[in-house]
Design goal:
Elements: H1 2-16, H2 21-40, H3 42-49, H4 55-69, H5 73-84, H6 91-105, E1 108-115, H7 121-135, E2 138-145, E3 152-157, E4 160-165, H8 166-182
Parallel strand pairs: 1-2
Antiparallel strand pairs: 1-3, 3-4
Helix pairs in contact: 1-6, 2-3, 2-6, 4-5
Length: 183
């Protein structure tokens, strides 16, 4: 898809222009803030997509948003470039890929944990330590509670899923029983 190619290209280019890891983190935060500003205001997306509004007017809005959010120069310059090239609406994919690039450079991985009940701080620490030992990376965890899981947890690391929930076990058992009944 075009948006994936655009996202990768600009994320890699921005990452290549930033050598300091602190600046890399700040750039990620700036991109996320600008993306949130556009998503938070429906009129902005329509404004940037509207063909009859001049690129100069759009540039002024980009600069204003960057100024209000305190966005660093490298990200601000990229936002202006995206506007000039008509690619600013691909920002969500750029943020997604930039997050991936930053994580790769900083040797960390994001893990999405879904559980039936909120995890305690102790359980989160044990999970981080175990995953750190296995993956040999710094682990960033975001959690979600889904009571329909009944119990257990489901981990998603990139495109891999480890599902150790009671709901999943019951579904597997159901399929096994159905297979035996057919046989």
């Amino acid at each position: 898809m075009l948006e994936n190619q655009v996202g990768k290209r600009y994320a890699e280019a921005l990452s290549g222009n930033i050598s300091d890891t602190g600046a890399l983190e700040k750039a990620l935060q700036d991109l996320q803030a600008f993306d949130a500003a556009i998503k938070g205001e429906n009129e902005l997306a329509r404004f940037f997509d509207h063909p009859s509004i001049s690129t100069e007017k759009k540039k002024n809005v980009v600069q204003d948003i960057c100024s209000r959010l305190g966005i660093e120069d490298k990200v601000s310059n990229m936002m202006i470039l995206l506007n000039e090239r008509g690619k600013i609406l691909f920002l969500e994919k750029i943020v997604e890929y930039f997050e991936y690039v930053v994580d790769r450079r900083l040797n960390r991985t994001r893990v999405h944990v879904t559980s039936a009940h909120p995890l305690t701080a102790e359980n989160m620490d044990r999970l981080k330590a175990a995953l750190n030992k296995i993956l040999e990376k710094t682990i960033l965890i975001d959690t979600e509670v889904d009571e329909s899981l009944i119990g257990g947890i489901m981990l998603r690391i990139g495109d891999q899923v480890a599902d150790d929930t009671i709901r999943n076990r019951l579904e597997i058992l159901k399929r096994l029983i159905e297979k035996e009944e057919v046989a």
